[in-house]
Structure formats: C-alpha cells, structure tokens
UniProtKB/TrEMBL annotation:
It comes from the Bacteria. The lineage of its organism: Bacteria, Pseudomonadati, Pseudomonadota, Betaproteobacteria, Neisseriales. This is Uncharacterized protein.
Amino acid sequence: MPLTALQINILDTAIGAYAFPATYYDFAANAPVHAVNMAVVEVAIRRMLTSANPTDAKYGLANVLYWGYAQIGFGPTRVNRFLENVTPAQIIGYQALVIAHPVPNLTQLRSLRMPQYSGISFLSKVLTFLDPAQYCVLDLQLAKLPNGFGARALHELVSSTTIPVTQTNQVVYNLWRAECVDISNTYFNGRYRAVDVERGFFHLIQTGNLAVAQQIYAFA
C-alpha cells in the first residue's frame, strides 16, 4: 500500500531535520572545519575526491572517514591509521577508477584494499560524496530498516557486525539507492536526492523512531 499523508509528512520532516555534524578536516591548516551545512561539506569533500592531485585525493578519502566518525570519539584514530597505511599505489588506483568510472562500484573500490575501507558502510560513503543524487549510504543503522514487510531490497542484505562487499550485497546496495530515488520521485516530485531520502531514514532511526522508519520503508 502507498504511504499515508502522515507518513509522507514524517519522512519529509525527518529529511529536513537531519543533523549529522557538518564537518571536515583541513589537513593543510591542521584544523577542523565546521561548515554551515552539509552542502558545503559535500562540495569540499567531492572536490578532494575528484582531484587530480594524489595528496588531495588522499585527504578526500581521509575526510570521508573523518566525517563518518564525527559522532564517535575514535574517528581521529581511524583517520590516522588510514593516512599512515594507505600507499601511493592505492591512491593512484583510486584516481584511475574515478577517471574511468566517475562513480565506481563497491567491488571496484574494495579491490583497492585501502585501509579502513573494507565494508560497505564507508565505501558507500565515498560513492555518496561522488554523486549524492544517485547514491547514498548503507550502514548498520540503515540495515535495521527491513521488518519483513514489503518487497524491499534491504531484506536481502547479508550483514553481521559489518556489511561485507559481496555480489549479493552489491546488488542490494544498487537496489537500495534506487529505492531512495524512487521514493523521492513518487512522494516528493523528485525534489530530493537519493542521499536526502536515506538521511531522512537515518534521522528517524537515530532519534528513536525505528518502528516508524521501518513502516515507511516497508510501504513506500
């Protein structure tokens, strides 16, 4: 069944209320940047991720980690591990992927074996910063969405303490991001990007409204 007017309004409100820290790190100045909104963060990180300069590309990948761990105290540790262990060959390989495929797939990114980028949670964040209109995050919070109802992609997701990159999960991820685009087109006249819809679900989950998010996801 389609969403009710109330459910549409709840998701719409959640999209607008998304409040994950709008922050990234300026490695040249050795200082955090607290942006006015996520749009500024998206532009800054995407510019780094798509830079022809290997150092900038490396800092872009480090910033995906920095932003993703912004709510968790051990974020700087993960960033430092990445910077200390990533190799020039891995960065060059990443840049080659982005040149050949403006948005690579999860399997291609995983094949680089970059430190701190083993699972879909953070690999999907890279794709999202590259193209937020068509891509979105899939992490363990969002993996809570399926409740057994509706023909939904995430019912087929295979996860435990991580979401590994497998052939099945690659397919599930592509269907999940397509679902987010479809929800925007069906209920919001396409004014939201895939990432905006995902962030609405994420906000509902983080604010203790998992059951509401599950119902909306099941019937959207």
